[in-house]
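2024-03-11 09:14:02 DEBUG pipeline.ingest accepted 1 chain
2024-03-11 09:14:02 DEBUG pipeline.ingest length=276
2024-03-11 09:14:03 DEBUG pipeline.predict start
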Amino acid sequence: MSSEVTTNIISPRRKRSGKLRVDCIQKDRTISRLSISIVVLTIISLVFLDISWLKLFSRIPDIGTIFWKLLHFDFSKMELVGSSLLETLSITVLSTLYSLMLGLFFGMFAAENILRIHWFSRFVQSFFTFLRAVPTPIWVLLMMVCLGMGPAAGIAGLCVHTTAFFTKSFAQSFESIPEETLEALEATGVGRLGVFLNAVLPSALAQIIAWTGMRFEINFSECAILGMVGAGGIGFVISNSIQGYEYGTAGVAIFLVFLLAYCIERIFVKIKKRIH
C-alpha cells in the first residue's frame, strides 16, 4: 500500500544526460492550480477596474520625468523638512511605545496559557481582531474628528491599530513557551503574574523586540502617509511640495524618509543580534 502511494506522489524520470529527475506529482498539481487561480483572479480584477490601457501606456514616459525632477534636490526648505521629519519620528516613537505597553498587558490576557481562562482569552482575541480589521488611516481620520488635525490624532489612531497588532503578536509569542516550564514554576507555588514576569516575558523577549522593530518601521512609513491627510509630519510636506510642483523639496524629504527607515531597520537588527 505504501509503495502505491509513493508511486502516485513521486514520479522518477531519466534525463538525456542519464541522471534521474524526480517529480512530485501532488506538488506540481498544487502549483498548477495556484497559477491558474492567479491568472483568473487577475483577469477578473482588471475587467472590473476597467483600466484604460492606452492612456496608461501613454503616461509611462512621465514616470521617468517625475523621478528625474525629484532627483534635483532643493535644500532651500531644509528647516521645514527637518522639523517635519522629527515630528514624524516623534509620532512614531510615542505611538509605538504606548502600544508596546498596552500590547504586553492585553497580550497577557489574550494568551491562553497565562490566565487559563479560555473564553476570556478568545474574547480578547476577537475584540482586537476587529480593531485590526479596520485600517490605520480610518482610525486616524476618526481621531481627527474627535481630537482635531495634528500629531495627537496621528498618535491616537496609530496606537489603536498598533496595540491590536502587538496583542496578537505577543500572545502568540507567549503561547510558544513550553508548557512544562510554566507547570514547573506553578508547582513551586509561583502565582500567575510571577510566572508571566519570571518565565514567559524573559523567554519571549527576543520575539518581542523583533515584533517591535518590525512595527516601528511600519509605523514610521504610515506616519509619512498619514501626514498627507492632515496628521502632521513629513507626509504633509511631501504632499504640499508635489501639489505645488516643488519636486526638489519633495525629493529631499522622500530621500530622508528612506535613509531614516534604513537606519531604523539596522538598529533593530543589531539589538536583536546582541540579545541572541
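2024-03-11 09:14:41 DEBUG pipeline.report The mean pLDDT is 81.
2024-03-11 09:14:41 DEBUG pipeline.predict end
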